[in-house]
Specification:
Blueprint: H1 3-19, E1 35-40, H2 47-63, E2 66-71, H3 78-90, E3 95-98, H4 107-115, E4 119-123, E5 135-137, H5 141-156, E6 161-166, H6 172-185, E7 195-200, H7 205-218, E8 222-227, H8 230-242, E9 250-253, H9 257-266, E10 272-274, H10 277-292, E11 302-304, E12 310-312, E13 318-320, E14 325-327, H11 332-336
Parallel strand pairs: 1-2, 1-3, 3-4, 4-5, 5-13, 6-7, 6-8, 8-9
Antiparallel strand pairs: 10-14, 11-12
Helix pairs in contact: 2-10, 3-4, 5-6, 7-8, 8-9
The protein binds alpha-L-rhamnopyranose.
């Protein structure tokens, strides 16, 4: 068994165990000394974040003495998210872990929380450095960006027009992955695979679906779409299937095996990537618990992530959890049972 296969098997097993823990929106874990950690995500109804929350509960149960409050606005906007965080500040929670809808807009509310003694970190989509103690990326940004360009190039044999179907234009994580994609795109091997457009589905299924239909109409020679969001890729794949475009247009990006299984088996998607969101929520929560227990997490420090090991925080106050996995026909059904 290779190192990667062994790691994937281990994660498959541990994630499977995590799935049986406290499901539901405001799931809670054992609370011995009354410490409350809020996980504030981009929006409700996103199974990627539900899986992160399962990992958060796993970490809280493992350590003991912490309650997880899993919450989000209904729409992925900064305004609604600020209102959610303000309410948590009023409730005097002990820690807040945020996936931000807008890096800059959330800085003041992050500062306000920290001024009142609440520990704030971001994961998934960063708050600007002033508004949080540290940010945990799922993986290295250049690697995630390059990977997505490589996947579509492999599917298309390096030839044909490609577009990006992103989340909201304010979202830090998607924007930094798109920048990293553009870096990769400069390489000569992509000379015959131009990027023709970038559109935004705002992490809403209906808007993402319509944006995908719009792309196909506006670019009759479009061959590929990269969607660096689990909502965008699942809605884009659905538009390809519904529109009878399988074999003509292919989608790749970041998706959940459980939501992309059909698209892969039907041929709308050849391969896609993602990290384990259960592990990601678990790692972020382990870091927060350690901070609440007095650990350092500023630039230059090494933070502990329980069963996921440890990671070093860079000068920019950011660290990364691990590597993404790639899914295709050979493994999508197996992992669809997990996340
Ligand atoms: C969506 C969200 C999330 C992102 C994943 C890949 O669920 O936009 O922030 O990390 O996709």
């Amino acid at each position: 068994m290779t190192k990667t296969t062994r790691r994937q098997t281990l994660q498959l097993f541990t994630a499977g165990a995590a799935l049986s823990l406290a499901p539901g929106l405001f799931s809670t874990a054992a609370r011995a000394d009354g410490k409350r950690i809020a996980m504030v995500v981009k929006n409700l109804g996103n199974s990627y974040f539900d899986a992160c929350a399962k990992g958060a509960n796993e970490a809280a149960t493992e350590v003991g003495g912490f309650e997880i409050i899993y919450t989000a606005p209904t729409k992925a906007t900064a305004e609604e998210q600020i209102a959610v965080i303000d309410a948590l500040i009023a409730q005097k929670v002990d820690g807040i872990i945020v996936s931000s809808n807008d890096a800059d807009a959330l800085v003041p509310v992050g500062k306000k929380a920290m001024d009142r003694g609440i520990k704030v970190i971001s994961f998934d989509s960063a708050i600007g450095q002033e508004g949080r103690i540290m940010h945990l990326n799922a993986s290295s940004t250049p690697l995630i960006g390059a990977k997505q360009v490589q996947m579509i190039a492999k599917t298309l044999g390096g030839k044909g027009e490609v577009a990006i179907l992103s989340a909201a234009s304010t979202m830090t994580n998607q924007n930094s992955w798109i920048e990293a994609m553009k870096e990769e795109w400069k390489k000569p091997e992509y000379a015959e695979m131009p990027l023709v457009a970038t559109v935004y589905g705002d992490d809403q299924d209906d808007k993402s679906y319509r944006e995908m239909q719009g792309l196909v109409k506006a670019y009759p020679n479009l061959k590929g779409v990269i969607s660096p969001t689990t909502i965008g890729i699942r809605s884009g794949a659905k538009a390809i299937i519904d529109g009878g475009l399988v074999g003509k247009v292919f989608i790749t990006g970041l998706g959940l095996p459980s939501e992309m299984k059909d698209a892969v088996l039907k041929g709308a998607c050849d391969s896609f990537a993602i990290w384990n969101p259960v592990d990601y929520g678990y790692s972020s929560t382990q870091i927060m618990i350690n901070i609440l227990n007095g650990a350092e997490a500023g630039p230059g420090s090494t933070v502990k992530m329980g069963r996921m090991g440890e990671t070093k925080v860079g000068d920019d106050g950011q660290a990364a959890m691990g590597d993404p996995f790639t899914f295709d026909k050979s493994n999508v059904e197996e992992f669809a049972k997990i996340f």
